[in-house]
Amino acid sequence: MTVHKIALVGAGNISRTHLTSYARHPDRVQVVAACDPVEERREWVRDTFGVEHTYETIGQLIDAGGWDVAVVCTPSHVRTSAVLELATAGKPIFVEKPLSFDLGDARTIVDACAATGAPIAVNQNFRDSYAFGLGRELIEQGEIGDVLAISQQELTFRQDKGWRLDQQRHALSVMGVHWFDGFRLLLGREATWLSARTFSSPAVDAVGETDASVQIFFGDTPVTYVQSFSSRLERTETVVIGTSATLQLGYAEAVLHRDGETKTIPNPLVGSDRSEAMFLGLDRLLIAVETGTEPANSGQDNLRTIALLDAAYRSADSGAPISLKDGLPW
Predict the structure, then answer these.
(1) Alpha helix ranges (H) inside 24-131
(2) Which of 272, 170, 152, 292 lies closest to 224 in space, CA to CA?
(3) Separation of CA 9 from chain center
(4) Which domains does the chain have, with CATH numbers?
(5) To the nearest 5 percent, what fractions of the chain are helix, strand and coil?
(6) How far is residue 224's CA from residue 220's CA, in Å, rounded to a whole number?
(7) Are 73 and 9 a contacting pair, CB within 8 Å?
């Protein structure tokens, strides 16, 4: 089994989850370098995870070499510039979600990586750490018949800190991107129409939206999605209504409801094991590089997830629905 040398770009909070996950797989990945403009974060990587080589800039990281794959954990608003600079090295890149706040930048990233031959994949970790993957398997196995509709709720009270508070695009970019990607995975096809409304609650300190209501059609199949960072009621649930059964998805399990009976399928990635999803996403990229294939979480695939995110914001801004063709605006 090939061991890939990893360079971490951005040593903020989310990087801890990546590094913890990777440390469990020394036969597959070894973090050999890290880059962050803040000396304190570079010291943290060295002291906590034993990463010997650290750099202040991406340019220094590229010039030093000695790594095979870059993992980008920068804040979202500087991610595009970071990935574009890394793309010049022509090496594989694994990027935190969202790939970008808007579809135009996401396309620029994917095109730049294609031009330099740098394979790129996105950490849509809820495909594994939420029960979306289990749900897709059950649907493919015909356990619920044809999918008639999906209802999604994420209700929580969430007060973020730091750079996220100043971003014009907030709740949907933080969490909605997970749900948009999950809908695509569950249905195995692309959206054709989307309408959204957003607002910012005075109860939460944030420039961008805290709450959203989104209606999406995947052909004839409707998806209703409500997102709240200001709710005093806590609930996260995905309900998939089929012609012969109903599927209830959460972080810990998938529950199949059929004719008065229920069947519970536990999600193996619960609790502290949720971080394993970070490695699984990276490993899909590594396998694709080794086999000359495209990973399921490729940047090209993720354009359609970002298209839903971008369409939701454009619909909310304009008050009009957005039409999509093959999951992209037209």
Answers:
(1) 39-49, 58-64, 79-87, 103-116, 126-129
(2) 152
(3) 17
(4) 4-125+275-297 (3.40.50.720), 127-267+306-329 (3.30.360.10)
(5) 40, 30, 30
(6) 13
(7) yes
- Report d(CA 180, CA 41) in Å as an integer: 32
Residue 249 dihedral angles phi and psi, to the nearest 5°: -115, 145
Mean pLDDT value of segment 178-196: 98
Say how far apart CA 217 and CA 202 lie, in whole Å.
Answer: 31
First to last CA, the chain: 44
Q: What are the two backbone dihedrals, phi and then psi, of residue 328, each rounded to the nearest 5 degrees?
A: -120, 150
Distance in angstroms (rounded) separating the CA atoms of residues 35 and 41: 9
Work out the mean pLDDT of the chain and round it to a whole number.
96
Residue 98: asked if its preceding bond is cis (omega within 30°), the reply is yes
* Structure tokens, 322: 């957005």
Tell me, what's the pLDDT at 242?
A: 98
Identify the pLDDT of residue 169. Answer: 92
Distances (CA, A) of 311 to 250, 259, 306, 329: 25, 38, 8, 8
Is the pTM value of this prediction over 0.85? Answer: yes
Give the residue-averaged pLDDT of 304-316: 98
* Residue 188: closest CA among 5, 49, 286, 327: 327
Q: Hey, is 322 helix, strand or coil?
A: strand
Confidence of residue 207 (pLDDT cuts 50, 70, 90): very high
For 10, 11, 21, 72, 276, the CA distances from 44, given in Å and listed in that order, are 12, 8, 17, 17, 21
| Tokens matching residue 45 | 């990587």
Strand order in the sheet with 193-199: 261-266, 253-258, 246-249, 230-242, 147-157, 221-228, 211-218, 193-199, 322-325, 328-329
Buried b / exposed e along 11-44 (16+ C-beta atoms within 10 A): bbebbbbbbbbbeebeebbbbbbbbbeeeebbeb
Record the tokens describing residue 36, joined without a space. Answer: 């962050």
